[in-house]
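ok, trying the design again with the full structure, not the truncated one.
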C-alpha cells in the first residue's frame, strides 16, 4: 500500500494506492458509516459488505438523478445518519458522483470517501471533487466541487469488471495521454487491453500514473478556471451524444475525441489525428457514430462550457499538448 496526501483548494484528500478493502475499518468506523454501492458491485462482492450499513442502488447512468438522490436521503434518515457519519461510495463513476453529491448536501455536508471499482472511476471520476447528477439529457447539469476525505484502491474489484467497462476506462486514459503525456501515449500504442488486463502490476502502475496526472491538473486549477478545462477533451460532443444515444461514457467521449482531433487538424494544424483515432481503435473504442445533427446541436447549446454564441472546445496542438479555444456555434454547426 502506498499513501499520498494532497490539499486541493484547502481540502485535504488522502489516496491509498494498492490497498485492500479491509483497510476501510481504519478509515471509517462501521457503526458511523454508510456504504453506497450498486446492485452489480454488491452482487459480486457481497461478502465484503457484511457488518456495514449499506445502501444498494440500481446500476447505471439512468439512475444518476435527483430521484435516486431523494431515495438515498430517505434511506439515510431511516439509518439515523447524522453529521458524525461518513458516506463511502463503492462503485463506478455513477456511484462516486452520487455519493459525493449526497454527502455534500445531506445535513449540509458529511465526511465521505470512495472505493472506485471501475477503471474509469479509478483513473477519473473519483478524482478532483466534481460530483453531480444528470437532469434529463443534460449530463452533470447539477453538482458541486468538494473533495472526498480519502480514496482507497483495491484492484481486486477489477476481477469482476465486464470487458466493456475496461474499454470504457481506456477512453479516459487515452484522453489523459493525448492532452498531457506524450510518453504515456507511446506506451499505450506499444501495448493493448489484454496486456494491461493480464499484467496486474502494469495495470496498477498505469492507474497510479493517471491518478497523479489528473490530480496535478486539479491541483493547479481546482475550480476549473484554466488547465482543468483541458480534461474536457472529447467531452463536449461526447456528452451531447451520451444520453441521447445510450452510448457508454467511454464510447461517447471516444467519438468526441475523434471529432475534436479532426477539428484540431483544421484549427490548430494538429498533425496526429490519425494516431489518436488508431489508438482509440486499438483499445476497441468506437470512432464513428451516426447522429441527428439538430438534436445534438440543441444539447450542445446547453453545454456548461458555452457563453452566448460561443462554445469552448478543447483541441490538440500536438500529442501531449491541448489548448482551450472558443468556437462560434455557427462554425460548430457547419463542422458537425
Ligand atoms: P458506472 O458507475 O455506471 O459503472 C459501469 C458499470 O459497471 C455499472 O453497470 C456498474 O454496476 C458496473 N460495475 C462497477 N464496478 C464493477 C465491478 N468491480 N465489477 C462488476 N461490475 C462493476 O459507470 P462508470 O463508467 O464507472 O462511470 C461513468 C460515470 O462517471 C458517468 O456518470 C460520468 O459522468 C461520471 N464521471 C464523473 C467524473 C467526475 O469528475 N466526477 C469524471 C468522469 C466520469
Amino acid at each position: 500500500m502506498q499513501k499520498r496526501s494532497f490539499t486541493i483548494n484547502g481540502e485535504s484528500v488522502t489516496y491509498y494506492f494498492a490497498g485492500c478493502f479491509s483497510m476501510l475499518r481504519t478509515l471509517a468506523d462501521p457503526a458511523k458509516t454508510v456504504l453506497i454501492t450498486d446492485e452489480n458491485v454488491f452482487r459480486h462482492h457481497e461478502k465484503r459488505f457484511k457488518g456495514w450499513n449499506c445502501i444498494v442502488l440500481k446500476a447505471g447512468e439512468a439512475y444518476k438523478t435527483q430521484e435516486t438522490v431523494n431515495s438515498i436521503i430517505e434511506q439515510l434518515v431511516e439509518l439515523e445518519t447524522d453529521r458524525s457519519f461518513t458516506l463511502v461510495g463503492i462503485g463506478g463513476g455513477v456511484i462516486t458522483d452520487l455519493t459525493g453529491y449526497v454527502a455534500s448536501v445531506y445535513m449540509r455536508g458529511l465526511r465521505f470517501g470512495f472505493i472506485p471499482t471501475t477503471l474509469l472511476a479509478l483513473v477519473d471520476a473519483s478524482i478532483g471533487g466534481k460530483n453531480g447528477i444528470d437532469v434529463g439529457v443534460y449530463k452533470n447539469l447539477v453538482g458541486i466541487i468538494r473533495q472526498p476525505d480519502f480514496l482507497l484502491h483495491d484492484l481486486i474489484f477489477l476481477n469482476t469488471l465486464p470487458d466493456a467497462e475496461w474499454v470504457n476506462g481506456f477512453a479516459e486514459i487515452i484522453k489523459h495521454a493525448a492532452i498531457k503525456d506524450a510518453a504515456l501515449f507511446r506506451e499505450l500504442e506499444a501495448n493493448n487491453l489484454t496486456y494491461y488486463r493480464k499484467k496486474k502490476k502494469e495495470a496498477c502502475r498505469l492507474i497510479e500514473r493517471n491518478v497523479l496526472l489528473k490530480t496535478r491538473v486539479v491541483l493547479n486549477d481546482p475550480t476549473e478556471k484554466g488547465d482543468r478545462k483541458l480534461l474536457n477533451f472529447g467531452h463536449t460532443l461526447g456528452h451531447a451524444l451520451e444520453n441521447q444515444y445510450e452510448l457508454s461514457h467511454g464510447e461517447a467521449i471516444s467519438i468526441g475525441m475523434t471529432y475534436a482531433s479532426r477539428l484540431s487538424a483544421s484549427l490548430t494544424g494538429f498533425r496526429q489525428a490519425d494516431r489518436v483515432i488508431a489508438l482509440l481503435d486499438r483499445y476497441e473504442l468506437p470512432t464513428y457514430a451516426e447522429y441527428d445533427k439538430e438534436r445534438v446541436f440543441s444539447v450542445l447549446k446547453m453545454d456548461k462550457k458555452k457563453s452566448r454564441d460561443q462554445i469552448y472546445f478543447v483541441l490538440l496542438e500536438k500529442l501531449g499538448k491541448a489548448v482551450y479555444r472558443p468556437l462560434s456555434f455557427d462554425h460548430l454547426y457547419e463542422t458537425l
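Keeping the full-length input from now on. Residues 200-220 form the longest helix (21 residues).
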